[in-house]
Structure formats: C-alpha cells, structure tokens
Design brief:
Elements: H1 11-19, H2 31-38, H3 48-60, H4 68-89, E1 93-94, E2 97-98, H5 100-103, H6 106-125, H7 130-156, H8 161-186, H9 191-215, H10 225-230, H11 236-244, H12 246-253, H13 258-261, H14 267-295, H15 304-322
Antiparallel strand pairs: 1-2
Helix pairs in contact: 2-6, 3-4, 3-8, 3-15, 4-6, 4-7, 4-8, 6-7, 7-8, 8-9, 9-14, 11-14, 14-15
This protein binds geranylgeranyl diphosphate.
C-alpha cells in the first residue's frame, strides 16, 4: 500500500484509494474468474496509479467522487497487464505470493486479464465520454505494443537506448499519462493543459520505469534481472551495464546464456547513469507542474492559493519516485 511518509497527501484521498473496491463490476462475472483475480493481481500493490489520478484531479479542481471510476479503471488495467506479463515472463511470484499463472494456469491468467480489460471498458462507457474510452483503449494498445516490441528485441537481442525508452513509454508512461490526462479531461481543461498533463505523465512514467529498473539491482531486491537476462530482456540498467562491459556485450549478442554472463563489474556505474536520467525526467515533471499551476486558474474555480496547496502532494510524489527504495 501507499507509503505513510507522504505527508502532504490529503487524508481523505488516501482513504479513498484504500477503500477503492478492486473487483469486477459485472454482477454476472463468473465467480471463479473474480476469485482468481481477487487473490492475485487485484490484491495488494502500492495503488500509485489511483492515488495519482485523485491528486491530479485535486490539482485540476475535480471532486474526488467524480474520479472513482477513472482511478479504479487504471488500476484494473494495470492489474490486467500484470496478469498477461506474468504469463509472458513465466513468472512464479508477484508481490510475494504465487503469480496468477502459477496460482491457476497460463490459459486462465490470459482469460482473466482479458475479462478485466473488457470490464474496465464497460464501466468507462457508462461515464458517457467517448474521449476517455478512446484514451483508455490507446493505453491498452500501447501496453500490448510495448510488450510486443520487447518480445521482438528479446529474440533478436538488438537493443538501443532509444528502443528501451520506447518500450518504457508504451508499457509504463502510457498508464501514468492516463492518471493525469483523465482528470484534465473531466475538468474540461483546454487542449494545451491536457497536453501538459500528458507530458507530465510521460516523464513521470519514464522516471518510474527507470527507477524500477535500478531497484531490480538494489540490495534487498535483486529480483528478476537474471530471469530477464535469460529471456534476452534488457532493461535500462542492463543496457548500460553491457555498454560498460563490451566483452560481455559481444558474448550476449552471440547468444550466450545469462547464467555464465552475469558479473557485478560496473553495475553501480550503470545504476548511476540510469538514476541520473530518471532525475532529469522528474525535473521535467516539476517544471510542468509549475506551468500548469500558472494556467489552471484561468480555467477553473480554484483560487491560486488552492492550486498552490494542491501542487504540494504532486511535487511530493515526484520526489518520492526519485528516492523510491521499493
Ligand atoms: C493486454 C493490458 C494488456 C497488456 C499486455 C504484458 C503486457 C501487454 C504489458 C506489460 C506491462 C507491464 C507489466 C509493465 C510493467 C510496469 C511496472 C513498472 C509495474 C510495476 O508497478 P508497481 O511498482 O507495482 O506500481 P504494484 O505491485 O505496486 O502495483
């Protein structure tokens, strides 16, 4: 769940995130699909995406109650992507518990993820905004495309820094952008501000993914980097690590197995390069918050003082992502 040290977040928003009921909305949902989802991908997690959605809503002057559907929708799409991701990766655990594919089967995990995606679209459609249904559909497209590109790159082992960024943009930044864009659309902000919101989510998402890539190599969670390497998947840190170890890169490109390739040589340096890049993206987020804060008063009933207050937790989230340790 959400870290407690995020002190400027209005408690009612934290409560709202905590109380969001993560279940499929359809009453006719097959019980076993729902139960499988409930004890796997819909359970736990930091719930960062709903929190971000409410915080952006707060910034744009939207009542939290008007964003429950949007906040839940993006967490459910995130959950659906996790269920498919666990199949693609052949994962065994997720959040310290058996992953959905391990708990059931690959086939069940794919179908349950599909069900979840469709449930989100049905619920969003009830809100009556075709624009938001289209936005969410594009997020789902981007997720699938990002994973597809990653799969191809893993097979050929042909990577570049740009390609890794494209994958992060599609797999992570697209989701974060929704959290900023959807509240801006609900608040009926002008196109320019919706554009800033999109850019904010983009930079936040890239920074989030890059920090996540560094966390794979931190002391307490050297999680799945060897599994990634074995599958030929290269994240931002592994890419820099191979660049710093040309002889290992040659062997990797020749198809050598990760198990014999792995070495900690220059790993710290690779982590630092990626952390610095993430910090640049976070700086861009702070700049975008300032730009939006100057423009929002002309388009909402919020006073400048209220906007300054609503800015604080967003800034805190940006800083939290830069120093995240889990
Ligand atoms: C059909 C929607 C759909 C997707 C299929 C498999 C796939 C294509 C996409 C994978 C997308 C994916 C899992 C990206 C990883 C993003 C990421 C950094 C996840 C970790 O997020 P946290 O730390 O996780 O917020 P918690 O557990 O806190 O929710």
């Amino acid at each position: 769940m959400i870290p407690k040290f995020l002190t400027t977040i209005p408690p009612e928003l934290l409560g709202r995130v905590r109380d969001l009921e993560m279940n499929t909305s359809s009453e006719s949902c097959n019980r076993s699909i729902n139960q499988l989802l409930q004890r796997t991908v819909l359970l736990g997690g930091k719930r960062l995406r709903p929190l971000l959605t409410y915080l952006c809503g707060n910034f744009f002057g939207v009542e939290a109650s008007g964003l429950d559907v949007h906040a839940k929708a993006i967490e459910m799409v995130h959950a659906a992507s996790l269920s498919h991701d666990d199949v693609v990766d052949g994962a065994k655990t997720r959040r310290g518990k058996p992953s959905i594919n391990a708990e059931s089967s690959n086939k069940h995990a794919v179908l349950a993820g599909d069900y979840l995606l469709a449930d989100v679209i049905v619920e969003l459609t009830k809100q009556g905004s075709l624009e938001l249904v289209a936005e969410m559909s594009k997020v789902i497209q981007a997720l699938a495309e990002g994973e597809w590109i990653q799969l191809d790159a893993a097979e050929t082992r042909k990577y570049s820094r740009e390609l890794i960024e494209v994958i992060a943009e599609k797999k992570t930044a697209s989701v974060m952008s929704w959290c900023a864009v959807a509240p801006a659309v609900v608040a009926e902000m002008p196109e320019a501000i919706i554009g800033y919101a999109r850019d904010f989510g983009y930079h936040l998402g890239l920074a989030f993914q890059q920090m996540d890539d560094t966390l794979d190599f931190s002391g307490n969670s050297k999680k799945d980097h060897l599994l990634d390497l074995e599958n030929g998947v290269i994240n931002a840190v592994l890419y820099e690590w191979l660049e710093l170890n040309p002889e290992l890169k040659t062997r990797f490109l020749a198809g050598e197995s990760a198990t014999t390739l792995w070495s900690e040589r220059h790993l710290d340096q690779a982590v630092s390069v990626v952390e610095a890049r993430a910090r640049d993206h976070l700086d861009k987020c702070l700049g975008l918050i300032d730009i939006m804060a100057k423009e929002i008063p002309q388009h909402s009933s919020l006073s400048e003082k209220q906007i300054l207050k609503a800015k604080e937790p967003l800034i805190e989230i940006v800083h939290y992502l830069g120093r995240r340790t889990y």
